[in-house]
Write a structure and sequence with these properties.
The complex is a heterodimer of chains A (111) and B (114).
Chain A (H helix, E strand, L loop, with lengths): L3 E4 L2 E5 L4 E7 L6 E7 L5 E8 L4 E4 L2 E6 L4 E6 L8 E8 L5 E3 L3 E6 L1
Parallel strand pairs in A: 2-11
Antiparallel strand pairs in A: 1-3, 3-8, 4-5, 4-9, 6-7, 7-8, 9-10, 9-11
Chain B lengths: L3 E4 L2 E4 L5 E7 L5 E7 L6 E7 L2 E4 L7 E4 L5 E6 L8 E8 L9 E2 L3 E5 L1
Parallel strand pairs in B: 2-11
Antiparallel strand pairs in B: 1-3, 3-8, 4-5, 4-9, 5-6, 7-8, 9-10, 9-11
The chains are: A mainly beta (111), B mainly beta (114).
Chain lengths: 111, 114
Amino acid sequence: KQEVTQIPAALSVPEGENLVLNCSFTDSAIYNLQWFRQDPGKGLTSLLLIQSSQREQTSGRLNASLDKSSGRSTLYIAASQPGDSATYLCAVEGGANNLFFGTGTRLTVIP
Amino acid sequence: DAMVIQNPRYQVTQFGKPVTLSCSQTLNHNVMYWYQQKSSQAPKLLFHYYDKDFNNEADTPDNFQSRRPNTSFCFLDIRSPGLGDAAMYLCATSRDSAKSYEQYFGPGTRLTVT
């Protein structure tokens, strides 16, 4: 069964810093990988989706990479802002409509 | 704006009292999902509908049922809620599973069981 791990579980950075969040998965046979943002007590907001054939996706200050063979993805956030504070979840789709989620990295950007 | 809507946002029910959570979508997506997310845990897929075809995850308790009367609406029924069923319930949609489109989530319903 697919297992998704996110390290670190929590991260605090001063405003303006660039940062990288890590995601690893055990089964490289995936359809896609998706990064989500979740604010406390709220639902999930999709940030980026990378198809299995792609290496990276960019949206504004966010850049996500995928190395399927090694089972790794990173989410790069440039010039972090206090509004970026949230939990970031990665999820891989292994087919059959099943997204396997990591437990997330809780990011705090300190003004 | 096209979106996924969940009602209510907060639901309190008594131990053993049936409860229904609602999800609707204006995206016209053919796949709808229900996830359970307990505190500080990853969302866990309960089941999904591909059009009218219901797909139950193997470890989803029988206490959880779902209905999809039409494309736009999907309901989660908890027949006899226990204290362990307190969680955030997330509804999601996607356009076509075969082509691996991204999933769009609603804001969630937080269920409290007293």
